[in-house]
Amino acid sequence: MDSPAGDFGVRAPSYLDRIAQALDQRLPRADTDPPRLHQAMRYACEGGKRVRALLVYATGEVLGVAPAQLDSAACAVELIHAYSLVHDDLPAMDDDDLRRGRPTVHKAWDEATAILVGDTLQTLAFGVLADERLTPLPAQRRIRMLASLAEAAGSLGMAGGQAVDIESEGQSIALERLESLHLRKTGALIRVSLRLAADAAGAGAPLTAALERCGNRLGLAFQVQDDVLDITASTETLGKTGGKDLAQQKSTFPALLGLNGARQRTAQLFHEARSALGPFGAKAAPLLWLADHIAQRKS
Ligand code: GRG
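That is the input. Now the predicted structure with geranylgeranyl diphosphate docked in place:
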């Protein structure tokens, strides 16, 4: 597939429709037994900016992979992301009542349902990638994608980062430690969104490394930005409770760098993300557009 011409921004709305439809097709129907669980799984996947799915499709454009070959990857990252938010909101973790502008799953249902929703969204993510009818790619590439996603979501990636974050509550940690925990907690899933498209394309090591580097910088930028927004944006704009980091005595980038320092670090990280795409030349345009769009986010 040749890279489509023009701005990725023109195509972004149709990718958002596409991911909504792909998720709808892959999630069990709400009336499937047990309906309570399936309704809650669907609820957890509604809303959100779909940044990770857009990163999959934009990387696909850069590498010339057809969207139909990436629908399961886009769903998989959004399913893992939704599971992580449902579990993060539980009383044992962040204890939050509001997510995406609505009651969290354990508030709208109950804690046991929220735990099961997280569990089942996670297994569904791997299931859709493994299924050759849903992911029309050679088996070797699908296996590579499964391994990449497992690494990003597991104890060496997102879940491990969450564990370090919880252990660090109430402590002041050094900037290097804070960056390393967020490279895992938030960064791993953003990085693997680019990596899954590289795996689907069968990209060679140098191009895969360039995309991983871009994803790594974007993932960290996203978290530093999130810390800044937690201070500067309202709960209404965020759709989740603002000001929580201070209340929970969390080490954050603004706490360590000051608000302006954190904004400068964000700008620097976005710059590094763009620079990493040098090897792709003009073909990098879709990812460059998306990086700029994320840099301007307000929620
Ligand atoms: C429970 C294993 C486990 C992991 C949880 C990512 C995470 C780890 C928790 C979320 C905590 C948090 C708010 C992190 C800040 C960055 C982030 C992931 C924000 C939410 O992502 P968005 O802004 O959300 O992409 P939407 O709703 O737009 O999808």
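Residues 73 and 86 are 20 Å apart (CA to CA).
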